Amino acid sequence: MKDQNNKTLLVTCITDHKASFYRLAYSYVKNQEDALDVLQDSIQKALASVDNLRNPNTVKSWFYKILVRTAIDFLRRQKKIKVMDDQTLEFLSHGKEDTYKDIDLHEALDELPVQYKTIIILRFFEDLKIEEIAEITDENINTVKTRLYRGLKLLRINLTKEDLS
Q1: C-beta of residue 64 within 8 angstroms of C-beta of residue 24
Q2: pLDDT tens, 68-113?
Q3: Where in the chain are the domains?
Q4: SS3 122
Q5: What is the CATH number of domain 99-165?
Q6: Which residues form the RNA polymerase sigma factor 70 region 4 type domain (predicted)?
Q7: Angle at CA of residue 127, ends 119 and 121, nearest 5°
Q8: CATH code for 1-98?
Q9: Is the CB of residue 159 less than 8 Å from the CB of residue 153?
Q10: Contact 75, 28 (CB under 8 A)
Q11: Is 75 helix (H, G, I), strand (E, B) or coil?
């Protein structure tokens, strides 16, 4: 009965926050179809391990954690792909790019190391609290605060450097 309640809670959470979850996936992969793939993989992983959910009150941050890890795994797999010929290139470039309003900000975010980028996205784009981010990333609260500060400092340096160019 508990597993069924957790599954219902998970489905409700995903339904209620689907736009936020999609935005987070998209912020990593920069492609609509890939973001949907990452989201779908995350949902499958969550449904398969819903019985591991210890505290039903943390279902949203639990799913964020799965989503972030799935997106990072996806990016690692993409780095291993080497394009050999035009057919392969054509096959891999089937995705459609979405457009951003603040292209400079998103380009600067992409240049950040993953640990800083993740924390900045979760804090400012998903409006999560430091404690929730610490839980999602399995880091100490002080580590999250430090990485947020350093990430913002690096972001500021990157944006200032682009303004000077």
Answers
A1: yes
A2: 999 988 988 877 655 455 555 565 555 555 554 567 777 888 888 9
A3: 1-98, 99-165
A4: helix
A5: 1.10.10.10
A6: 104-155
A7: 30
A8: 1.10.1740.10
A9: no
A10: yes
A11: helix
